Amino acid sequence: MSGAVDLSPLKERASAPPPPPPSGGDGAAPGAIAPIVDVTEATFETEVLQRSMQVPVIVDLWATWCEPCKQLSPVLEKLANEANGAWVLAKVDVDANPRIAQAFGVQSVPTVVAIAAGQPLADFQGVQPEPALRQWLDAIQNAVAGKLSGPPGAEPEEQPADPRFEAAEQALENGDFEGAEAAYQLVLNSEPNNTEAQAALRQVRFLARASTVPEDAIERADAAPNDLEAQFTAADAELFAQQPEAAFGRLIEFVRRSTGDERTAARTRLLELFELFDAADPVVVSSRRKLAMALY
Known about the structure:
Blueprint: H1 8-13, E1 36-38, H2 44-50, E2 57-62, H3 67-83, E3 88-93, H4 98-103, E4 111-116, E5 119-125, H5 130-144, H6 166-173, H7 177-190, H8 195-210, H9 217-223, H10 228-240, H11 244-257, H12 260-274, H13 282-295
Parallel strand pairs: 1-3, 2-3
Antiparallel strand pairs: 2-4, 4-5
Helix pairs in contact: 6-7, 7-8, 8-10, 9-10, 10-11, 11-12, 11-13
């Protein structure tokens, strides 16, 4: 897939009469989410875009004549049934629904696209082994954890406070970034995959940098466009001022015109900044595409 994914024509296609709210489908309890749905151009907005506000939707673009599709689809269906509504498999016959295939820029089938909050999150083409599919799906669910509304009628589970975070939170209240970082790192030393601690540590490190940014950081960077450290500092200033598009654009432009170690460092910093945001944030999604174009 390449370029932006324009889903607006499919919204128009699904206008008059408006579709009913996403249903549980055959065999699902009232209000429950069916794990697998067949999607057409007329139901795309309801079953994919609207549904993706609740749970991730994995769009399986296939064709009846496609032999690899016959290998991949049954595995996806098995995993969807196991997921018990944590995500939905939306199956699209590309021959019967060419506008959906066109919207996703499908060049070959099978193509699988993860949608969350109405935006493409990740995709792949071709047959993948089941362990790789499980890992990919786990990554999707981790990326959107706590960021979607969940299945209809589902009560969010109140998570008990983790006492290990209290020291870090107290340090933050006191403006002690080093102490907060050490406390979060202590959690990760014993639990390396703790996503809450990982996210908190990234935030703390950013706040620590941003707290030392000089007032004229942006002016200095604009006057020295080839100074990597100046660009890093200016990007932090712009991000702290809630101007992520400017911050990302600055570093993407540096990647575009640089080479070697500096280019790698700029790309690495950009990826770190992306992780401060929701993976489905439109600015992040757009900036990831721009970065890919700058690299290639």
